[in-house]
Amino acid sequence: MMKSSFSRRLHRAARGLLLSAAAFGLLQGGAFAADKVTFLTSWYAQAEHGGFYQAVAKGIYQKHGLEVSIRMGGPQVNGMQLLTSGQADFLMGYDLQVLKSIEQGLPVTTVATSFQTDLQGMMTHADVKGLADLKNGKTVLVSTSGRTTWWPWLKAKYGLTESQSRPYTFNLQPFMADVNTAQQAYPSSELFQALKANVKTNFYLFANDGYPPYGTTIVTMDKTVKDRPDVVARFVRASMEGWKSYLADPAPANALIRQDNPNMKDDQLAYAMDRLKEFNFVGGGDAAKGGIGIMTEARWKKTADFMVGAGLLKPETDWRKAFTTQFVKDLKVMP
Hints:
Layout: H1 2-29, E1 35-40, H2 50-57, H3 60-63, E2 66-71, H4 79-84, E3 90-93, H5 95-103, E4 108-115, E5 121-125, E6 139-142, H6 150-158, E7 165-167, H7 173-177, E8 181-185, H8 190-196, E9 201-205, E10 215-221, H9 222-227, H10 229-248, H11 251-260, H12 266-278, H13 287-290, H14 297-309
Parallel strand pairs: 1-2, 1-3, 6-7, 6-8
Antiparallel strand pairs: 3-10, 4-10, 5-8, 5-9
Helix pairs in contact: 2-10, 2-11
């Protein structure tokens, strides 16, 4: 009886130790101890944000010990201001925006990219056979943001003039009404609208003619990189795994995208996915060998050199502060 009683006490003690260890594990890396992260996107939810939504929907962030809240951006949202004021941990950014922020002394940096090229391009009518044809009397619709990003590059490369430009107000009617008009476009957005209106178009991706920025990057504060490198590393890895998963099966993410943005319909999401695959934005370029999310110093230098040459960036700006490759150089999330 004494031996049996001792065995029971020993069993209870061992069981208590196991429960304590399990609780400790939860506190360290499980559900109760997940690091809370807020990610601010650049616009309303869409397929171009799919990898991040997929990482939420499929529990990929959770697997990496993160509790991620995705907050939508929009036309009235100043993402950089929200990031620098501590209202977001990570921001969906853009190379030119970050380089300009460095010039202004803001302590921000890019830690990964979703797309190996910017998605910006030109939508034209069927008679235009290339960007060089725009010089032949075409009117080009340019948004306010476009005037300080791709428009200086396009003007310099193809000898276009300021007199050719008109404001783009995100309304396709001027383009549809005038065959001599071309306009800025994303392959997954304006092209889809034109298709629905039965307007024949051509599309020319600026990156194919040498426009250097990356697309849909991840930006954070220098302090976050310094003080929470493990959180940054896990967020980057989980996000890139999310992109790989999204391209394989977009349904889980698309459900969340439609929930956040009810205006995003199934046919547009499907069209956008086809364009993401057609242009191989996620897995093309350096990502084919270096893995999804990869960035290089050479590419960043090209973007900085373009900005300096176009008068968009002061020559003395330390462009190397705009990015770090420490979180992607050995990541190897292969397409």
